[in-house]
Specification:
By secondary structure, the protein is an all-alpha fold.
Amino acid sequence: MPLNDDQNSDSDSSRLSESTASSSDSEYSRQSFNSDSSSKPSSPASSPPKITTFDELMAAARNLTDLTLAHEIAVNANFCIKHDDLPQNSFAGTVKQIVHEAFWDHLESELNEDPPEYEHAIKLFEEIKEILLSFLTPGTNRIQNQICEVLDTDLIRQQAEHNAVDIHGLANYIINTMGKLCAPIRDNDIKQLKATDNIVELLRQIFRVLDLMKVDMANYTIQNLRPYLQRNLVDYERTKFQEILEETPSALDLTTEWIKESMEDELSSVSDESSSSPGADGSSKPIISPILVLNNGYLKLLQWDYRKTIPETLITDEVRLQELREKFNQLKIVACICLITNNMVGAAIVDVPDFADQLKRISVPLLEGMNKKTFDLKEALNAIGVQICSKVNRSLAERGLPTLNEEMQSNLMGQIAHIVEENNPVSSLIDKRIQFFMRSLLALPSFQKNMPTMPGGLSVIQTEMEYVGSQYASIVNFNKQVYGPFYANILRKLLFPEAPMGKAETETPTN
């Protein structure tokens, strides 16, 4: 996998990185967007419109696959290759099993002939030799030469012509070599191979263990590659995306639309504030901060409909972003439930220790899996309402206070069930406070560890909000580092269309 060791970053990227490290609008002045940009390899360049051929499209797809894989290896410490067999009861699994059984039956009949027919067995030995050689690292010349000598296809074929092939001896050599090359986790598999007498079954099991060893080798490579990728991931991803953009000039269309929508939201917000301010000049063009536009775009991802395509620059983190969005939705519902319950019976239970946490412990298990299509949120909320009414009455009874009557219980359960309705006032309020917290978090310098103040009504989910929020901010800050120059070019064109283009827009960088 080609990696860019160059640690240089272009001026646009530096400016955007500095902007993400500060909430000050002045750091993202118009001057920084009109200034010249270097044309280093890591600088994004706008390509002129051209007709994209099929080969170019396939090359771009391969680049995207490499980019996504490298990103996943670097950011996901648990990422590994798994050996997944097809389900035996599936059509594909059944076909595979039938074909394999037919092959091994045919091989067995050939070896049982008098004299034996070795041609298919020789081809298997040739394949095994290539697999064993693929496991070797540079400098292992002795074992490489030995494998080539023992599993010499021409020699084995000559021996076969004289019916002098020691097929069991070749199999034992293969097993011993596999034992030297395999990971410790495969030692038991090697022992089982040594205990297998039937030569056809032995060859069959050799290939099974070799497949496992291939997966082990791939994961070993990933483990060794991860630290290098982590050190060079920003430059690698930016360079790789530039290759995609050169192959497919439309590769920033969705990103541009995403930023444009965010900019229009910010312009609308600024215009509303200006018009409501006394003495405001309605004729003046509102000035907005590019970094606020970008952060607003990131906040939109918390409410993104992931059935539609995500912006191209965020595709490597799509699954993580979707999982975090679902987690935020779950936390919002928990906060709504606690707020509604406290508003109705707070005066009576305000002194009960950890009562809000008890409500959370009731709600969270019943909201697990709410991102699945089969999940019925209304049914879950009804069940939560029933349990909370029971919990509230039990707490009130323990303190010798009047319990909730049927009308009050029905009212409480109804308000909890209505959380999912559009424009629900409690849900809207909690959502605004979550958005405010996340906006404040994204505005913090990336090196600052302190969390912003948690808005009222969110204290019950504060620990979870800070944890999930820090995960989200980490994804956002890294994304800004990688794609900052691309975003800078898009923002410059959208915010200052009359400004002259810098080099990053007019020159294609040489790699």
